[in-house]
């Protein structure tokens, strides 16, 4: 377990210096984020033994500088590469390293790039699918039907499967009545999966997406 600095006044003092470094030091922000991650983990005691506070902070910094997806995938990649991640700390802390964080920063940036590549691997096929959906739906479906099916398709491709759009949400987004939405549901019911009744929530079927995207 990492012990951190003592006493508490020293922790507060060094955390303050770390924040000053993060805000004012003249270096690219990604370098400062990675260096400050090491500094925080070195300064702060792991009372729970696993350093989750430090990982939460770096996720927030990455989210602010890049986006939420980068922060989430970085956390995912760390989880999948714990040995490499912890070894970077061990090597950086070696007294023979003389406080040089270059190697540590390089490893953290490598992990960040792996995560961003993962985003692209996931995003590119979905963007291609979106283009095909837009072309097909706009050419072959009436306006209300197109907008309803397109919205459900986007929710399926990019949304959270645990928090799908309800019919109330769709009414508000499209600005159409429930009667019109219900008519569309009746017409294309074979391509819809009802996953909840109150509030009513539908999901577009894989069959429909595969049929349109091919």
From TrEMBL:
Annotated ranges, domain Fido: 1-110
Transferase among keywords: no
Keywords: ATP-binding, Nucleotide-binding
Coiled coil (UniProt feature): none
Binding site residues for ATP: 48-55, 85-86, 97
Gene3D superfamilies for the chain: Fido-like domain
Gene Ontology MF terms: ATP binding
SUPFAM superfamilies per record: Fic-like (SSF140931)
Short name of any one Pfam family annotated for the protein: Fic
Active site per database record: 44
Superkingdom of source: Bacteria
PANTHER family: FIDO DOMAIN-CONTAINING PROTEIN, FIDO DOMAIN-CONTAINING PROTEIN DDB_G0283145
Protein name: Fido domain-containing protein
Organism of derivation: Staphylococcus argenteus
Taxonomic lineage: Bacteria, Bacillati, Bacillota, Bacilli, Bacillales
